[in-house]
Amino acid sequence: MARTLAQKIWDNHVVRSAPGEPDLLFVDLHLVHEVTSPQAFEALRLAGRRVRRPDLTVATMDHNTPTRGGRQAADDVSGKQMDALEENCRRAGVRLYGMGSRHQGIVHVIGPELGLTQPGLVIVCGDSHTSTHGAFGALAFGIGSSEVEHVLATQCLPQGRPHDLAVTIEGELPLGVVAKDVVLGLVSRVGISGGQGSAVEYRGSTIRALSMEGRMTICNMSIEWGARVGMVAPDDTTFAYLEGRPHAPRGADWEHAIEAWRGLASEENAPFHQEIRLDAASLEPCVTWGTNPGQAVPVGDRVPEPADENQERALRYMALRPGTAMEDIAIDRVFIGSCTNARLEDLRAAAAVIQGRRVHRSVQALVVPGSTQVKLAAEAEGLDRVFQDAGFEWRDAGCSMCLGMNPDILQPGERCASTSNRNFEGRQGAGGRTHLLSPPMAAAAALTGHLVDVRSLL
Amino acid sequence: MEPFRRHQGRMVPLDRANVDTDQIIPKQFLKRIERSGFGPFLFYDWRRNDPDFVLERPEYQGASVLLTGPNFGCGSSREHAPWSLQDAGFKAVIAPSFADIFRTNCLKIGLLPVQLPESSVRRLMELAQEDPALPVTVDLQARTVSAAGFSEPFAMDDFARECLLNGWDDVGLTLRHADAISAYEQHRAAWLPRVPTP
Fold first, then answer.
1. A356, B105, B159, B164: least buried by Cβ within 10 Å?
2. Using the beta-carbon criterion (under 8 Å), do B23 and A426 form an inter-chain contact?
3. Which of A328, A326, A325, A344 is nearest to A336 (CA)?
4. Distance, CA of B21 to CA of B79 (rounded, Å)
5. pLDDT digits 0-9 by tens, A59-113
6. Which of B63, B169, B163, B154 is nearest to B117 (CA)?
7. Quick check: helix, strand or coil at residue A215?
8. Looking at the complex, does the CB of residue B186 fall below 8 Å from at least one CB of chain A?
9. SS (H, E, C) B138-170
10. In B, which residues are within 8 Å of A78 by CB distance?
């Protein structure tokens, strides 16, 4: 029977299958960070077990790392968590790209950057945005700490098969509309639980035309509509991104790999449980008004009338009145960063809007590159100067204000235009209000001091 | 993990949809490296900012079954969310649907996620509002939820149920298949990425 991309990868990784039980899947790459791993390592120790495949496990520090002042700037509890990761990796023989390493960065940025993220792999990490790696045609999903322990001990996970769901997007994106707008537009249409239980494959001419960075942005936010994984079939764009990266196959291995990767695509008649179709021409620059990523509208629209109690609650939290033009919403802070939108292409897109202009006097604006490598590459082409000359702060790599575990947080009542992935209550700091948007839209908001259609500045 | 067979306790109705894990336990409490002691931080901001928050009301103190809306536990994969519920005394959560990672995390630690139709959850919420002292029984053996004239079966796959009923260590279960894992490893392509340490 014709199979989908997800089914092929699944079948390739079944270690054991028994009726009435979940399949036991082999994990090719386990990414680890400081926040969700200490309890897993501890449980392993208490049970007298060892890390089975340290060579398939890679760790970094990203969630609570300070973005200025180095390790010393971390509070004591965060410091202890980083110490624990160092100690755990040292004992187990796991490679750690810790603070100070030139490969340190957000776990979902460094995997692809190092060429570790490859088509056809099963990749897991104790973080819900692991779906990012699906952009390469990998089956990648977030797990909890008990599952982190499971993978450390066995390099396997028992998993039930997901449903196959296709998202087909056709056509050319209008000027000023980027990958972030595609995924916000999608989530606002399907709702934040529309993908529950699913392995999503994004396909169609719009997806094919996107760069790897754009595909990562879309796959990254698969979890924001509840999907277990989000993926794109590998193609020449994928291979061109991977070739020559530190852990990509070389020489004859590269040829073998390409051949295997080309065979991964979903077959013509492969059955999907559901298909969602989207017309690229219908998409516009998007921004959220509420407290979940599905509460988004085109920037030219108005704050909607609440449809139910949950939306009323969201409007109260966001201190917004129905009927207000989105462009009339003034902002205090701008955050350009996160595993969704802090790769080099994102920074270039924001810098292109900012070039030669100044951040509005009422706005405090922050750029946090997704990795140390992204930071160095951006500096090599002078993007740091563009941002700093405009009045942005230029920081060190990490998750930073996407979840506010480090000192970068909103104060109560502050309103932020953010390129991150979640606008939940208090996500960026207790009482803080988040509007999600693309890097160019965040740049435009920084310049004008309010939400604004970036197309008016192009 | 502690086995879960049957639990009787009082309910608390948290009538909200899409409760995300950032609300269940905010990020500032994820810095601890221990697995226990997260109970006091459960719904931290809601408890602190809303004097009428349902979990703070005296009549619901000691409740051990949380009733809530669809898509409970969406967002972050933090297992700290079910840890905090369990540490605060909850044994089961009843909702019309759960986010996938949250549900899995619950099953791994023996906090029972019970999925019932929205109308049934609504009925239980009404019962809990009418009489906060009313006990509910969640029976995993029989796969039923019952309370004062209310009785309804729920679905739970056999394997997850067996694990919970017996309190099995599922790492131990997987390790019984160590030979199959080794056999699989033998056949992986040599060019697949590896990161050996010196």
1. A356
2. yes
3. A344
4. 9
5. 999 999 999 999 999 999 999 999 999 999 999 999 999 999 999 999 999 999 9
6. B154
7. helix
8. no
9. EECCCCEEEECCEEEECCCCHHHHHHHHHCCCH
10. 31
CB contact under 8 A, B195 and A193: no
pLDDT surpassing 90 at residue A190 = yes
Phi–psi pair at A436, nearest 5 degrees: -85, 140
- List residues bridging with B186 in a β-sheet: none
Residue A422 and residue A221: Cα distance in Å, rounded? 9
* Encoded tokens for B173: 């279960």
Per-residue pLDDT reduced to its tens digit, B78-127: 999 999 999 999 999 999 999 999 999 999 999 999 999 999 999 999 99
Q: Does B129 touch chain A (CB under 8 A)?
A: no
Count of other CB atoms within 10 angstroms of residue B5 = 13
**Helix, coil or strand: residue B19:** coil
- From the list B77, B97, B191, the residue facing A143 with the nearest CB is B77
User: What is the Cα Rg of chain A in Å?
Assistant: 21
With tokens 């099995």, the residue in question is B168
A197 CB neighbour count, 10 Å cutoff: 17
Q: Is B169 on the interface with A (CB under 8 A)?
A: yes
Cα end-to-end span (Å), chain A: 49
Question: Which ranges in A133-280 belong to alpha helices (H)?
Answer: 145-154, 179-190, 205-209, 212-220, 236-242, 251-262
Q: ipTM of the assembly? A: 0.98
How do residues A18-57 score in pLDDT, each as one tens digit?
999 999 999 999 999 999 999 999 999 999 999 999 999 9
Of B28, B30, B171, the CB nearest to A153: B171
CB contact under 8 A, B99 and A121: no
CA distance A108 to B81: 22
Burial of A262 (0-12, 13-18, 19+ CB in 10 A): middle
Neighbours of B162 (CB within 10 A): 14
Q: How far is B151 from chain A (nearest CA, A)?
A: 27
- Residue pLDDT, tens place only, A231-274: 999 999 999 999 999 999 999 999 999 999 999 999 999 999 99
Q: Domains in chain B, start-ordered, CATH in brackets?
A: 6-168 (3.20.19.10)
A408: DSSP letter: -
Q: Who's near A175: CB < 8 A, 6+ residues apart? A: A455, A458
Contacts of A30 in chain B (CB under 8 A): none
Element containing residue A282 per DSSP (H, E)? none
The structure tokens 């973005």 sit at: A67
Read off the pLDDT of residues B161-186 as tens digits, 9 standing for 90 and up: 999 999 998 999 999 999 999 999 99
Axis crossing angle, helix B100-109 with helix B80-87, rounded to the nearest 10 = 50
Q: Within the 5-64 window of chain B, which residues sit less than 8 Å (CB to CB) from chain A?
A: 16-18, 20, 22-23, 26-28, 30-35, 45
Closest partner residue to A55 among B105, B157, B194, by Cβ? B194
| Chain B residues inside the 8 Å CB shell of A24 | 174, 177, 180-181
* Length of chain B (residues): 198
